[in-house]
Each structure stands twice: as C-alpha cells, then as structure tokens.
Input
Amino acid sequence: MTPDASELTLVDAAAAIAGGRTTSRAVVEACLRRIETFDPQLNAFVDLRREQALARAEAADAAIARGETPGPLHGVPLAHKDMFYQAGQVSTCGSRLRAGFVAGQTSTLLTRLDAAGAIDLGTLNMAEFALGPTGHNAWRGDCRNAWNPAHVSGGSSSGSAVAVAARFACGSLGSDTGGSVRLPAAANGLVGLKPTYGRMSRHGMMGLAWSMDVAGLLTRTARDCARVLSVVAGADRSDPTTTRLPVPDYERHCARGVEDVRIGVPRQHFYEHATPEIRKLMQASLVAFESLGARVVEVDVPDGNELTELGRAVVYSEATALHGEWLRHRRGDYSPQVAVRAASGLGIPAPVYLEALALRPMLVRRFVTEVFGACDLLHTPTLPIPVPTRAETDVGSGAAMWDIIARFVHCTGPVNYLGLPAVAVPAGFTANGLPASFQLIGRPFAEAALLGAAHAYEQVTDWTRRAPHLSAVGCGPQAT
Amino acid sequence: MSQIDPAVLRALAEAQGFEDLDGEFLARVAHGAANAISAVRRTLSGSLFDTDPALFLPTLEALAARERE
Output
C-alpha cells in the first residue's frame, strides 16, 4: 500500500517535494483529508484555511516545475497556535475576549516560515490566553489527546501538539511560559523545544508575561525541529529582546552524537512526583544514552519549587497588568480558572515582582555553574505522571486547581524562570497507552546540543516512528 | 508560609478598580500569590542594590555554551 503523504516527517516531506517524488499539493491534500476525518473529535483546529493552503501548495509545485531552488520548508504544511498574528486574520488567543480580534501585524516567525516556503494550514486550539497546562478550554472546547481523546492534550499549545501527532501538519509553532510547549509535546509523543529566552522573536505573538514568554516548536523528530529552528531563530529588529548571537546550523549538529556527553540525573526535585512506571521509562532512556557512549552522572540541583514560584511572581504580576482592564470590566468572559490565575498578580506587591526579576541573573549564573559544571545536559521527566484523563483534571477554579497545576509543571516550570533551553523527547508509553517523555535541559543557547542528543536517542528507539491509531480510539466517521 | 488575608487583598484590588470579587476568588488568588511571595522571601539572601534585571539576557549570552566543533 502506498504510504499516506501525511505520514512523512517534515524533513522527509521537504526532501520528497524538492526532489519531485511527491508534490506539495499531495502532502497538503493528505493532511486536509485527515483533518476533515479526525478533527471533529480532536478539536485541534480553530480556523482551517483550506483554499489558501491549496493555492500556496500549487504555487510551490509550480516553482519546483520552473526549476527554482526550494527553501528549506518548501511546500511543507504547518499550522500554528492561534496566538501568532497574521495581518488581516483573526487570532482568538483561545479566548472569547479575542473572538473577533483582527491582527494588524504579522509575526516575525510566520514571515520567516513563509519565506522558507512553508504552507500555513490555519490556526490551532490553545488554552485560554495560554494559561493552562492541561489543554482544557471552556470556550473553544477542549483539545483532545491524539492517542486517546478521553485524556488531556496538555497545554497550553494543545492544538499544536494534537495536530502534529495526528499527522494534520508536519510541525507547529507554540509558546512556552511554564511548560506550554513541552507538556503537550510530552502528552502526544512529540519533540517539543523551548528555546533559550531571546533565541526566537516574539514580535507579533500574544504576550502572557513579557519577561518569561518564549515561542517554541513542536515536531515529530529532533531533526524536524532542527530544520525549523534554523529557519526561525535569530535576531529581529522588531523584538529587542532577541539575542544577536549567531544561529548555528542545527540540523548539521544533529549528527554529532552523544559520545562522552555527560547526562546529569538530578538528585533533588524532579523525581518527587514521578510514578514507578515513569521512573522505569526514564531509567530505560538513560540506558539508551549510555549505549550511545554518553556518561550518566548524578547531580545536585537547586530547589526547583522555589524557581517555579519565583517565575510565578513574575508571570502573575505581568499577566495581571496585561489583563487588568478586561479583569475589571469583562471578568465573566474568562473561564473561572483563568480569571483566578490572570488576577493572581493582585496579591503580589510590586517590590516582590521586581525582586524576582532582579534575582534572575544571579540565579541562572548559579544554576549553570553548579549543574552544568557537573554535566552537559540535565535529564528529567517532562511530565512526572502518566497523562491523566480530561475528567480527572477538569477542576475549574476549585480547591484542587493549584495542586493540579503544580503537578503538571513540576519539571518544566523551573526552566522558564532561568530562561534555559529544554527539549521534551518521546520516551515510550505508560500502561494507559499514552506517551511518556523525558526532558533535556541545557546551558543557555545549547539548542544544538539538546537536539543532537535527542536525535541520537531517536536512532536507537522507535518512539518517534509510532503514530496514534485514530480510528481505534473513537475518531473518524464511526464516532458518534 | 505566611498567608495573605483575603480582606486585605480585597481592599487593594478595590483600590485598583477591581469590584465584586467574591470570597472564594480572593482566597484562590491569595493562595497562589502567597506561595510566590514566600519563594522570593526565602531566596533573597542579600541586598539587590547592585543588581539590574536588564542584565538577564546579557547573562544568558555570557553563559552560552561553546559549540563543540
């Protein structure tokens, strides 16, 4: 049987289109067929731009026929979290409050993807205002896990993860302020990269917390991620918080392997909530790294809970400032949980917020010196528990809210305050049939090392080659 | 962990124009904020007189990994 073109990884799709072995139209049509068949149950798309995508695909194929040199993403279908603005198009940011918001500018990242030849299929579901780690969205409807719709998709880049896992698109932009790329990537068996603060432009991206937000990437493989990162990373005059450090050829670095790389296993914090089966899968991934020539070493790490809470002092202060006017006058248009979280800055005095900001340079210096003096990459679970069901975590703003959030972001939250890069990598499956994931954390701007290690690991495992059987889990025409 | 009195929080919120906040809402906000405030207090170990938050990105750049060639 001829494989469905939507099964191609991003890199393979780009190569097949550039080499004339398939067409952009064939790949886009295959993705559209899957979206139309399965998305009614998964709820990943907000706005599917079918005709626009097909027109772009035909133009991409015509360019190949004329002998033009294709860009690195020529003809490849992507779709993005509904918070990357495109001039003249609606970006809802997952909220009723933005239901009719038409962007006046285009995100730098979308502009760069477009210049590289990517096809934009449309906008994707997300947690309301990117404030939610589970993927619930009371207004748009929950985005559902591609491996089992009864389970959470993870958030806040829920639609991004589900769309890539379900083979609706080859890759997606997300955002990560506390784990919002890595958590849905983990829950859906994908590679999810949170780059270093300053590595990717935020111009034309919805803000949640100016000091902490980063855009991120969700793809099926590390090499796919490296391809996209090479396209979108780098300084942007429209975003003064981007670094001027040069952008490496990330894809080339994927071939470096992990020989003699020191993989650090934290003695503190990151395993506090890890269940026995998550621990077992983490151990198996470490054995795989050792088989590749890496050295596994135990390392002491600073208090992760403190780092997460320091981050919250910043995020909630800034979020309350951003949302203040709507919280005063349109609070009923927020879901209860998001209203509480967006308003939590009301309880944080300005000096505390500024202290949390002022401590950052000192604390990241200390973390890097202590942790990355002893290892090259820190290895932790991404989500320390098996992916729960939507029902188990549908707590609204009730008493369990802070506990659920704390458990989800336990391993991802500390990274954001420090601004460090981290990548979530598929690491097998738990007994409930849902994906598990480990996280690699690196020194600032060590994205090449992270993706190189993830790529090496993928060569000795087959997790990234596994796809969810959507029909078998109740998606598709037979679903009621 | 020190607690934030929801009544104090209500007064501060009302001074900023936030009206009609119910007790449960304020209790949840107070809980989340108190955790964050406590973490900042525990982490402070000296004067911040000579610090500058604007140095965060330059600090990251200075700590950047050297690529293995």
Notes: The longest strand of chain A covers residues 422-429.
